[in-house]
Amino acid sequence: MRKSVLGFAAAAATMIATFAGAEETGAQVAQATETEATKPTAELTQEVVPVFVSEEVVQELPEEAPQEFNGNLPQADSLRDLVAAMPAAGELSDEMRCLAGAVYFESRGEPLAGQLAVAQVVINRSESSRFPESYCGVVYQRAQFSFVRGGSMPRIKTGSDAWKRATAIARIAHQGLWDSEAQDSLYFHATYVKPRWASRKTRRAAIKTHIFYR
């Protein structure tokens, strides 16, 4: 009789331990699930801003906002037609505004090929380890662009045709939709000045009042 009582007690103890273990395991699973559920998710943005490594490499740039083209990139037989076919820019990121600003202030009176060449120089610099890693870094680098005064860009007439063309050119250059005559140029100057450094560079193109060098 005593053995039966002892056996029953042992079995009961085993069952209690099993239930306790199961309850503890369930709590751990619930806690882990809750932790996973409360983890923050990465915020998606509509526009990808290019960021480059500090090495002299060619790196593909993500498209600024591929959804605006509805899966179809504009097709054109000339740069002028391509500019006309570009959809409205909408809200620009700071980086794209810096790129378009350089085009607007440095070359808005130039042919479209000259405007594209200016944009290409900014892009080329951002990909070179000799210059800052972003469009804004290149544009605002000290003593590089004369239109930058006191570390800021002058006011832009955003409703003007010149600004619309500049933003279209900036997006075309950014997405590599048209080859520029400037090719791999990192420098340019107006034809009415003769900087001493020009003789040490390789000339790539001359477009109206600007000469471009590598």
Gist?
It contains six helices and three strands; from the N terminus they run H-H-H-H-H-H-E-E-E.
Portion in helices: 40-55%
Rounded average pLDDT: 78
Tally of DSSP helical segments: 6
Structural class: mainly alpha
Give me the side-by-side strand order of the main sheet. Answer: 1-3-2
Order of helices and strands: HHHHHHEEE
User: How many beta-strand runs?
Assistant: 3
Strand content: 5-15%
**End-to-end C-alpha gap:** 102 Å
**Biggest sheet descriptor:** 3 strands, antiparallel
Unreliable spans: 1-71
Shape: globular
What radius of gyration results from the CA coordinates?
30 Å
Structure notes:
With 214 residues, the protein is mainly alpha-helical. Strand 2 and strand 3 form a beta hairpin. It starts with a helix and ends with a strand. It has 6 helices and 3 strands. The longest helix is centred in the N-terminal third of the chain and has 37 residues, at 2-38. The model is unreliable at 1-71 (pLDDT under 50). It has a 3-stranded antiparallel β-sheet, covered by helices on one side.
What is the topological layout?
Layout: H1 2-38, H2 79-85, H3 94-107, H4 112-127, H5 135-139, H6 161-174, E1 187-190, E2 203-207, E3 210-213
Antiparallel strand pairs: 1-3, 2-3
Features:
globular; mainly alpha; three-stranded antiparallel β-sheet; 6 helices; 214 residues; 3 strands
